[in-house]
Structure formats: structure tokens, C-alpha cells
Amino acid sequence: MNATLGQPPVETSEYQLDSETLSSCELLRGLGSSRQQDHVPQCSEDGRFRHIQCGSSGAECWCVNAVGAEISGTRRNGSAVYCLTSCQLQRQQAQVEGNSLLVPVCQASGEYRPVQCDRARGQCWCVDLEGMEIYGTRQNGEPSQCPGSCEVRSRRLLHGTGKHSPPQCSAAGTFLPVQCTFVNTTDRTLFDLLHTFNQFPKVFQTFRGFRQMFPEVSSFCFCADSRGRELPNTGVELLLDEVYDTAFSGLEPGRSFSQTNMYRILQRRFLAIQLALTGRFR
């Protein structure tokens, strides 16, 4: 299997990926389909390569690793293929090499246990779906909770990687179904929500206060999938001079934009427009 269509495989962690982009598997799948190749990569719902890949006829199948490269000796024609997960493969390799420090702990499903530990040092940390350490989670003892995919992206933005428009996350750390950004109407550039909210959190409590400080900014909201990506044909620009402070104006400022009055009202207004335009919320 040519896992990368002429390009060397690159292992990318969930922390490094921008959730608005396609994964390596999805990109290769799109290329394979457009070129009508014999093998088009099969991807899981979260964008990873499926452990078992098959040819277009479905007769020949083989196992792949996390970057979609074929594992030698696993190709079968007309017979069942049994594949190990990335965690199981890494665990097996570490045990063969006798490196006890690199033996990951896998769940019953074969996926990485969200918390991995170095018992010799007494340290533990959270890992992403590919077993890579999530920045800022290493500590003495086990973390009580690991960040969700939305929180992971927010952490990346805080460390200067990607756009300065943090996603709206739920209490569980997942992406909220409605995502909103702000746009400068003069040049259509993305408004720096990250630093502006950190500097002026109270401004985001009322639309009146926000309009006074940023009169040339509008909002853009859309329905998002589980990875925070915009669902097709759901984006709507909301002009802030047409939005008024209502039911939530008395609530205290939140720790993030998703906990502000502005987001709550934008979310309601957006869903009302979606319902009027399409007859449904999503």
C-alpha cells in the first residue's frame, strides 16, 4: 500500500492538528478518489486510518499503522485479517525490545488508556488518540481529568499555534455544536478573540459595550461536527448592530467566551435563523 501517495508518512498528534482541517487519512482519501486509484484509504469517524485497509474489490486486505503505512506480512487475499491497534503495536514492540519505560497501557478496546504513567518517577500525563502526550498535563500522580478535544485545541492556541479564535467548548471539553468567530468588516480578517477576551472580559457581557469598543466587527456562526469543523451550508454572518441585550444581561462574566452573555445570545439567534431557513436546527 502506498500510504502517502508519494509523500513520506508523517505522524501528527491530535494536539498538533488544527481541528478545522482534514486529517492525513481524509486528505489521502480525497486524492485517491479524485485520481480513481485502486486503493482509497478508509478513515474512521475521527479521521484516523482504519486499522484494516482493503483494495477496491474488497478481496485483498492488510493492516496499517497510525500513519497508514502497511504492516509487513499482514496482507491477505480472501481470508480474514486480524490487526493490532496502534497501542497494541507499540506495546508489542516495546516488550520485544525489552524497554519497560516505553510500554503503553491499552484499554480493552485496544485504544490507548487516556492516562499513561512512568511509575519509576511517579509521574503521569494525558495522551491523545495516538498515544502522544498532551502538553501541560504531566504531573506527580494521576490527573483527575484529561482535556477533551476542544480543550486540546484551546491549549494549542494559548501557546501561539494556529488562529487566535479559540473554539467554544462544553464543560466536558468537547466542541459545542454552535461555533462563532468574529470578523473585522473593514478588511474581512479574523478578529483576535483570544487576546481581546483575556484583556477585556467584561466587554463581552453586553452587545452595547462590545459595539462601542469594536464598532466594525461582526460575527460568523456555524454548526460544527464533533471535531469543531464547520458543517456545509450552515455558516451565517450576524451583524452585531442588529443584536440586542436580553435575558442573559444580568449574569456574571465567565472564564471563557462560551460562558459569556454574547455567546449565549448569538447561539440562540443563530439557531432561530437556522430553523427559519431550513426548518431544522442543524
Oligomer: single chain
Report the strand count: 9
Strand order in the sheet with the most strands: 1-2-3
Question: What fraction of residues sit in β-strands?
Answer: 5-15%
Subcellular location: Secreted
Keywords: Disulfide bond, Glycoprotein, Secreted, Signal
Disulfide bonds: 54-61, 63-83, 87-106, 117-124, 126-146, 150-169
Main location: secreted
What report would you give on this structure?
The protein has 3 domains: 1-83, Irregular (Invariant Chain, Chain I), CATH 4.10.800; 86-140, Thyroglobulin type-1 (Invariant Chain, Chain I, Irregular); 163-278, no CATH class. The protein contains 6 helices and 9 strands. It has helices spanning 24-34, 86-97, 149-158, 193-199, 207-213, 261-278, and strands at 52-54, 60-63, 76-77, 115-118, 123-126, 139-140, 178-184, 217-223, 236-238. The strands form 3 sheets. Strands 1-2-3 form a 3-stranded antiparallel β-sheet, with no helix packed on it. The protein has a 3-stranded antiparallel β-sheet with strand order 7-8-9, covered by helices on one side. A hairpin with a 4-residue loop joins β4 and β5. It is globular. 23% of the residues are buried. Disulfide bonds join 54-61, 63-83, 87-106, 117-124, 126-146, 150-169. Pfam families: Thyroglobulin_1. It comes from Umbra pygmaea (Eastern mudminnow).
List the SSEs and their pairings:
Layout lengths: L23 H11 L17 E3 L5 E4 L12 E2 L8 H12 L17 E4 L4 E4 L12 E2 L8 H10 L19 E7 L8 H7 L7 H7 L3 E7 L12 E3 L22 H18 L4
Antiparallel strand pairs: 1-2, 2-3, 4-5, 7-8, 8-9
Précis, in short:
With 282 residues, this protein is an alpha+beta fold. It contains 6 helices and 9 strands.
